[in-house]
Specification:
It is a single chain. The protein is α+β, with helices and mostly antiparallel strands and about 375 residues long. The chain folds into 4 domains: about 80 residues, conserved putative lor/sdh protein from methanococcus maripaludis s2 fold (Beta Barrel); about 100 residues, Efflux pump adaptor protein, beta barrel domain (Elongation Factor Tu (Ef-tu), domain 3), CATH 2.40.30; about 60 residues, Beta Barrel (OB fold (Dihydrolipoamide Acetyltransferase, E2P)), CATH 2.40.50; about 90 residues. The protein is about 30% helix and about 35% strand. A 6-stranded antiparallel beta barrel has the order 3-12-15-14-13-16. A 4-stranded antiparallel β-sheet has the order 2-17-22-21, with no helix packed on it. Helix 2 runs antiparallel to helix 3. The longest helix has about 45 residues. The protein is rod-shaped, with a radius of gyration of 41 Å. This is RND family efflux transporter MFP subunit. One of its GO terms (molecular function) is efflux transmembrane transporter activity. Belongs to the membrane fusion protein (MFP) (TC 8.A.1) family. Keywords: Coiled coil, Signal.
């Protein structure tokens, strides 16, 4: 009898475990088709928004500073993040060999100048002799043959002097060319800006195949480039107001205006690139930051701009679990249960006081038996 009771108890325990584990095992293996939604970032200017799109911060003025010669870095004067002015020395290549060549070239210039000076002195001397001999010829003291010989010698010395002067100019040009190459060993900043890439280290080699040394971006030229659906392009025009919210600073809003509408259409996405520029100084904004741009029908007052945007979670994504509000965040095909704290009503749902970041994908309308760790795939939309 006791054995029978133990068997029954064991079977009951196995059944309970199966009832608990089988659904979890199934949820971990089989993908459930669900609809997706996301956490939205709603601006206080929602009533004025005509189009919303996402994009990235890009500088309009960028200089990838390179080198004209091969060499090894002797000194690097900047680091990533440094602010530089046009003409500042960014780095220097080793130049001992070049200075040696310049010294040799300058010695050749000095020697050529000495030869030219000797030629001029010889020419002056023979001209003086020729003048004296011509005076004697005029007096009838000597014949003309000597004067004629001197005239021929003068012509030869004049040609020699011209050749010596040309040699001086050629040697000086060679020396100047070497000095220009020496100057190329110093890499200078061509524009004002900020160093946005890590410069090379002292001792590194640079070659003509990869001559880029430093990348500089003018942060005063930062804009946001965003893709706008071509079906909404008629709502946008250059000069119209808009606002920017950076993913890095979701509680801060920046005034902007539409700068330029692109001249090409991305046929794969059916979008057109649009650039917008910051109206006010964009402190702490750096290239490649993600941004959300809201194009407005009318400009906002400074007071309205001070109101922070709100995170909004759709009510359909909220469910109760163990007496608390939770959402299921979708990441790499798996749903993770995340507790949240919500506030009052907001456009599109409820204000999210504590929870996932804007743009986070969520499961819409999770069923009552939906489990943490459930594998999911997006339900195909009905056409």
């Amino acid at each position: 009898m006791r054995t029978a009771l133990l068997v029954v108890a064991s079977l009951a325990a196995v059944g309970a475990a199966a009832a608990f584990l089988v659904p979890r095992a199934q949820s971990a293996v089989f993908k459930t088709e669900v609809s997706f939604t996301e956490v939205a970032l709603v601006s206080p200017a929602q009533a004025s928004i005509t189009v919303t799109s996402t994009g990235y911060v890009v500088p309009q003025v960028v200089s990838r500073v390179g080198t004209k010669v091969m060499g090894r870095f002797a000194r690097v004067h900047v680091k990533e993040g440094d602010v530089v002015k046009a003409g500042d020395v960014l780095a220097e290549l080793e130049d001992a060999d070049q200075r040696s060549l310049i010294a040799a070239a300058e010695a050749k210039v000095a020697a050529a100048r000495a030869r030219a000076a000797a030629s001029r002195a010889s020419l002056l001397e023979i001209r003086q002799q020729e003048a004296r001999e011509r005076s004697l010829v005029d007096q009838g003291a000597i014949g003309r043959a000597t004067v004629e010989d001197m005239a021929a010698r003068i012509q030869a010395l004049e040609a020699s002097a011209k050749a010596a002067e040309a040699e001086v100019k050629a040697a000086a040009a060679d020396a100047e060319s070497l000095r220009v190459t020496l100057a190329d060993r110093k890499i200078l900043a061509p524009i004002n800006g900020t160093v946005v890439a890590k410069p090379p280290e002292v001792g590194e080699m640079v070659g003509l195949e990869n001559p880029i040394v430093v990348e500089i971006a003018d942060f005063g030229s930062l804009v946001v480039e965003t893709d706008v659906p071509e079906t909404r392009l008629h709502l946008i025009a250059p000069g119209k107001p808009c606002e920017i919210v950076l993913d890095a600073y979701p509680a801060k809003r920046h005034r902007c205006t539409t700068l330029e509408i692109g001249k090409r259409v991305n046929r794969a996405k059916a979008t057109v690139p649009v650039k917008v520029k910051f109206v006010d100084a964009a402190a702490d904004v750096i290239p490649d930051m993600s941004a959300r741009v809201s194009f407005l029908s009318e400009a906002l007052s400074e007071q309205a701009m001070k109101e922070p945007p709100k995170r909004v979670v759709p009510e359909a994504a909220l469910v109760d679990r163990l007496g608390a509000k939770v959402v299921f965040v979708v990441h790499e095909g798996q749903a993770k249960m995340v507790p949240v704290k919500v506030g009052g009503p907001a456009p599109g749902g409820l204000e999210l006081l504590d929870g996932p970041a804007p743009g986070t994908r969520l499961v819409a309308s999770p069923p009552p038996d939906f489990a943490d760790g459930q594998k999911v795939k997006e339900k195909e939309k009905e056409s």
